[in-house]
Design goal:
Shape: globular
CATH superfamily of the largest domain: P-loop containing nucleotide triphosphate hydrolases
Largest sheet: 5 strands, parallel
CATH class of the largest domain: Alpha Beta
CATH architecture of the largest domain: 3-Layer(aba) Sandwich
Strand order of the largest sheet: 2-1-3-4-5
Radius of gyration: 23 Å
Number of helices: 19
Strand content: 5-15%
Distance between the termini: 17 Å
Length: 460
C-alpha cells in the first residue's frame, strides 16, 4: 500500500510546519511550498495525491494556482484553506473545482477527515478514467461460471429500471463492480455514481457524510457542506457496508427513501433528492434485524432486487480466466510481459480456499508476477510465493524448507498474517489495528515495510 503524497502550499511557515508534523504523524508523505509559483513547479514535476492550498499569498494567490492546476491535472483533489472572507471564498473555490474549503484556524479532526475523503475521491476519479476506456459492457465482472453469468443477466435486466438493489457477499467478491455495472447501464449513467463506505466513517460523522451539514451545526462545521445524497443528485448513491450504519442514520436514510427528501445536519429545510440507491453488505442483515441492529423496514426498502455475489471458492472454474485478466492488467501497470500459468499451478490455485476472494487472488497474482522470474509461472513459484495453505495441496513440500534463516521466516509469517487481517476487515485500518492490538501508525509502518498493497479496483 503506497503512502499518499500531499503538497501543502502556504506562505506562513508556522502553518507548513504544523501541517507537516500532523500529516507525517498520520502516515502521509508531505512536501511543502511557501508560495504558489514554487508549488506549481513541484506539482508539474512530481506526482501528488492531494493539494492543501492557502488563498492569500504574495505573487500568485491560491485561486491562480488552482486555475492553472485544474487545466493541467484536473484529477488531483484540492482543499482550499483560508481565514479571509470565508463564505465568498468557499463559493469561489467550489466553482473553480476545489474539493472542499476549510476555514483557518484549522480543526485537526475535520482536516484529517477531509483529506481522507479527498484522497478517496481522487482514487475514484482515476478509476473512472480507466473504466471509460474499457470495452462497453460488464467486462470487469470476469468469469464463465453459471453464478457470474446469472449476475450479468440480472445486471442488464435491473439496470434500466429504478428499482433499488441490495448486493450481498463476502469481502472481496466484487460487490462494488456490480454496483458500477448497474449504474453504467442505467439511464442515470450521465450523472454521478457517488460511493460511501459506511464502515469506514465514524458513527458520529456518518449522518453529516450522507446528508451534509449547515455551518455551525457541530464543532468543525465551519461552512455548509453537501452530503452524499445531494452529490448524487440525478445519479446513483452506492452505500457499501450498509449494515454498519447506526440506527439513527438508518432512520434518516429510511425517511429519505420514503419521501425523497433529506435534511442537512443542523438544518430545518427539506431538500428534494432524485437518487437511486444501491446498497451492499457482507453481513447477514436478517440476523442483524433479529439482534436489533438493523431496521427491518429499511431492509425491505433496500432489498427490492437482491443480488448475491458468491465467494470465489464456489466458482473455482473462474480462477484461470481471472488470472489471465490480472496478468494482462499487471503487465500494463508494470510495463512487463504477461505471464502464463502452467496446468499444475492452476490446479493448485483452484484448490485453495481464497477466504479473501477475488481481491486476495488479485494480490496473489501481483505477487507472482513480480517475484517469479520466468514468463511461465509453475508449481514451484506457487509453492514459494503464495500462502501457508499451499502445504494442504502439496504433500511432502515442507514450508520450513523454503526459508534459510529465522528472521526471513518470521517476516513472511507476519506479512501473511497482516494481509489476511486487512482482507478480513476490508482494509479498515482502525479495525485491523484494533484486532492486531497495535497502534494505527505501527500498522502503517508494517504495511510499508512488507510492501502490502490493496487491489485498485474492487473494494467490495
Amino acid at each position: 500500500m503506497s503512502i499518499a503524497r500531499i503538497i501543502a502550499i502556504d506562505d506562513y511557515q508556522a502553518t507548513l510546519e504544523s501541517l507537516t508534523v500532523l500529516l507525517e504523524a498520520n502516515n502521509y508523505e508531505v512536501v511543502t511550498a511557501d508560495n504558489g509559483i514554487t508549488g506549481l513547479k513541484l506539482l508539474n514535476s512530481q506526482d501528488f495525491d492531494l493539494v492543501l492550498l492557502d488563498v492569500k499569498m504574495p505573487g500568485m494567490d491560491g485561486f491562480e494556482v488552482i486555475e492553472k492546476l485544474k487545466r493541467e491535472k484536473p484529477e488531483i483533489p484540492v482543499i482550499i484553506m483560508s481565514a479571509h472572507d470565508s463564505a465568498n471564498t468557499a463559493i469561489r473555490a467550489a466553482g473553480m473545482g476545489a474539493f472542499d474549503f476549510l476555514e483557518k484556524p484549522l480543526d485537526t479532526d475535520r482536516l484529517l477527515i477531509t483529506i481522507r475523503n479527498g484522497l478517496e475521491k481522487g482514487r475514484l476519479v482515476k478509476e473512472n478514467k480507466k473504466l471509460k476506456v474499457q470495452v462497453e459492457g460488464t467486462y470487469d465482472i470476469i468469469g464463465v461460471s453459471k453464478p457470474i453469468q446469472q449476475i450479468r443477466e440480472m445486471i442488464f435486466r435491473v439496470a434500466k429500471t429504478e428499482a433499488r438493489v441490495l448486493i450481498t457477499g463476502e469481502n472481496g467478491t466484487g460487490k462494488e463492480l456490480v454496483a458500477r455495472a448497474i449504474h453504467k447501464h442505467s439511464a442515470r449513467n450521465a450523472a454521478p455514481l457517488v460511493e460511501i463506505n459506511c464502515a469506514a466513517i465514524p458513527h458520529e460523522l456518518i449522518e453529516s457524510e450522507l446528508f451534509g451539514h449547515e455551518k455551525g451545526s457541530f464543532t468543525g462545521a465551519t461552512v455548509q457542506r453537501l452530503g452524499k445524497f445531494e452529490q448524487a443528485q440525478g445519479g446513483t448513491l452506492f452505500m457499501d457496508e450498509v449494515g454498519d450504519m447506526s440506527l439513527s442514520a438508518q432512520a434518516k436514510v429510511l425517511r429519505a427513501l420514503q419521501n425523497n427528501t433529506i435534511q442537512r445536519v443542523g438544518g430545518s429545510e427539506s431538500i428534494t433528492v432524485d437518487v437511486r440507491v444501491i446498497a451492499a453488505t457482507n453481513k447477514n442483515l436478517r440476523e442483524a434485524i433479529d439482534e436489533g441492529k438493523f431496521r427491518e423496514d429499511l431492509y425491505h426498502r433496500l432489498n427490492v432486487i437482491p443480488i448475491h455475489v458468491p465467494p470465489l471458492r464456489e466458482r473455482r472454474e473462474d480462477i484461470p480466466i481471472l488470472l489471465k485478466h490480472f496478468s494482462k492488467e499487471l503487465a500494463a501497470k508494470y510495463q512487463v510481459s504477461e505471464k502464463d500459468f502452467d496446468q499444475r499451478s492452476l490446479e493448485i490455485l483452484q484448490s485453495l480456499e481464497w477466504t479473501g476472494n477475488v481481491r486476495e487472488l488479485q494480490n496473489m497474482a501481483e505477487r507472482l508476477m513480480i517475484l517469479s522470474r520466468a514468463d511461465l509461472i509453475t508449481e514451484q513459484d506457487v509453492s514459494q510465493f503464495v500462502t501457508l495453505d499451499i502445504n494442504k495441496v502439496l504433500p511432502g513440500n515442507d514450508l520450513f524448507d523454503l526459508y534459510d534463516d529465522f528472521q526471513t521466516f518470521k517476516d513472511m509469517i507476519e506479512k501473511l498474517f497482516i494481509e489476511r487481517k486487512l482482507e478480513k476487515y476490508a482494509w479498515n485500518i482502525s479495525k485491523t489495528a484494533e484486532a492486531l492490538d497495535i497502534q494505527r501508525s505501527h500498522l502503517y509502518n508494517k504495511i510499508e515495510k512488507y510492501g502490502i498493497k490493496r487491489s485498485e479496483g474492487d473494494n467490495g
